[in-house]
Design a protein that fits this description.
Elements: E1 2-3, E2 5-8, H1 13-19, H2 25-28, H3 32-37, E3 42-47, H4 50-56, H5 62-72, E4 78-82, H6 95-107, E5 112-115, H7 126-134, E6 138-144, H8 153-165, E7 170-174, H9 182-195, E8 200-203, H10 211-220, E9 225-228, H11 242-251, E10 254-255, H12 260-280, H13 293-297, H14 301-313, H15 320-333, H16 343-356, H17 366-373, H18 385-392, H19 410-416, H20 424-432, H21 434-443, H22 450-460
Parallel strand pairs: 1-10, 2-3, 2-9, 3-4, 4-5, 5-6, 6-7, 7-8, 8-9
The structure holds cobalt (II) ion (CO).
Cobalt (II) ion (CO) is lined by residues 13, 176, 203, 205.
Length: 462
């Protein structure tokens, strides 16, 4: 029986997509043991927005959360999402910060690092992949999926080969906007499987009502693993339901490795948790049903709602159709970047500005200027020459990788913070989120310190 690896996303992506990452450790701690014994390939439980949310809203130390998860979930590999050179933020950090962050993540129990760059510029994931492997963890190279005239099966297969050549342990095709058509999923997975010799994973979202079909087609094409979330925290903007995919795949002759009775207990646990978030209003029923407008406009649902609120704030909602027509033109001018953060905001806002000022690129956003300069990486296609000239002015584009221009800052920052903290984890939290981390570090004295937890490692885990 062909095995399909199942990754559970309830602790990270489903948590992030449905309830803005507000799930606290205490809210899921009682079910960790069951999650660990259900037969999952991995538990996606950290990275993405969880780190920021822990510090900003939950008064939790993200490092401590990871350590505490690892102390209970000792059998199932833990998985995280890492934005390459951006780590968990939106700007490029110097290599020493990337390396220290990964070292500490693996040290505290991370096993699989899914590493991506918003532009599929793999120079921006090279250092992260290298350090992940140095630390003995699994480096999953990631391709961001998008739809454009320059992205096709061949271009995705080429990217997959590049990842394999870079030493990736596996490949993930990441469809964060839930745009992949089932047949496209089949074709891309089949081609990548034929062209490479490492496992291939598909990550999608039910946002447009396609992901369940895409997963099944991908399974038929030989995909090695898929991401699902337990049904109480599934569907809509999150992943397809774990149980449904388990039964569907099993009936089609696949072995998911999952135990159905375990899945039931996990779901029974999460039902009241979900009800709590519905009651507080943090889970909006609207995100639970498909919103296939994204397929009509070829833009992610989140981007559409952002543009609508921007236009409303400007009293210009009557311009929505014009802006929607402008979006693909701006995207073309920028060389067809995938519409994910931060590119989706950049393209959406520039399109809005182009319409509201009545003249294209009369005003160019500073982010667009930085993009044209190469500060985000290399555009997938050609940037419109006229726009590029106007955006750059007297400046010259950056040669090579942006992070090559950044000086190391870890040791320097550690020295600066020596009166505040002696822990490397705190220093990393501070570098990533300086405005909020300082107060957080000052206030957390009452919690068990990460230093103490580090002492526990030898006794508890290794
Ligand atoms: Co996702």
């Amino acid at each position: 029986m062909k095995k399909i690896h199942m990754t559970e996303t309830v602790l990270r992506d489903a948590n992030q997509s449905l309830i803005a990452t507000r799930l606290s450790f205490d809210q899921f701690a009682p079910i960790l043991h069951e999650l660990d014994n259900a037969g999952y390939h991995s538990l996606e439980c950290w990275g993405g927005a969880t780190f920021d949310s822990c510090i900003r809203y939950l008064n939790e130390d993200p490092w401590e959360r990871l350590r505490k998860i690892k102390m209970v979930a000792k059998n199932t590999p833990l998985q995280m999402l890492l934005r390459g050179q951006n780590i968990l933020g939106y700007k490029h950090y110097p290599d020493d910060v990337v390396r220290n962050f990964i070292k500490m993540s693996v040290y505290h129990g991370m096993d699989i690092l899914r590493i991506f760059d918003a532009l599929n510029d793999f120079r921006n994931i090279e250092v992260a992949m290298d350090e992940t492997k140095k630390q003995g963890a699994h480096a999953q190279g990631t391709i961001v999926y998008t739809v454009s005239p320059i992205h096709d099966i061949e271009s995705y297969t080429k990217l997959a080969k590049q990842l394999e050549n870079m030493g990736a342990d596996s490949i993930c095709l990441k469809d964060m906007a839930g745009l992949i058509m089932p047949q496209t999923a089949y074709d891309i997975v089949k081609n990548i499987k034929e062209a490479t010799n490492i496992p291939v994973y598909l990550h999608s979202h039910s946002t447009n009502g396609l992901a369940e079909m895409a997963y099944l087609k991908a399974a038929e094409a030989g995909v090695d693993g898929i991401d699902c979330s337990i049904s109480a925290f599934s569907s809509g903007t999150a992943q397809p339901p774990t149980e449904s995919l388990h039964f569907a795949l099993q009936s089609a002759g696949f072995d998911t490795g999952l135990k159905a009775d375990s899945l039931k207990r996990i779901n029974d646990f999460f039902k009241p948790v979900r009800d709590h978030f519905i009651k507080t209003g943090e889970l909006d029923a609207k995100v639970l049903t498909p919103q296939p407008e994204a397929l009509t406009y070829q833009i992610p649902g989140g981007m559409l709602s952002n543009m609508i609120s921007q236009l409303k704030a400007q009293n210009a909602i009557d311009k929505l159709d014009e802006v929607l027509n402008e979006v693909p033109r701006v995207r073309e001018d920028l060389g067809y970047p995938p519409l994910v953060t931060p590119m989706s905001q950049m393209v959406g806002t520039q399109a809005t500005v182009n319409i509201l000022t009545g003249e294209r690129y009369k005003m160019i956003l500073k982010e667009v200027k930085a993009y044209c300069k190469g500060e985000y990486g290399k555009a997938p296609g050609e940037i419109n020459a006229e726009l590029s000239k106007k955006a750059l002015g007297e400046e010259t584009p950056i040669e090579g990788r942006f992070a090559d221009n950044l000086e190391p800052i870890f040791e320097k920052t550690k020295e600066e913070l020596k009166d505040l903290t002696s822990s490397d984890e705190d220093v990393l939290s501070y570098i990533l989120f300086p405005q909020i981390a300082e107060d957080f570090i000052k206030n957390k004295k009452k919690n068990p310190s990460v230093d103490q937890l580090r002492e526990d490692i030898k006794a508890d885990v290794i």
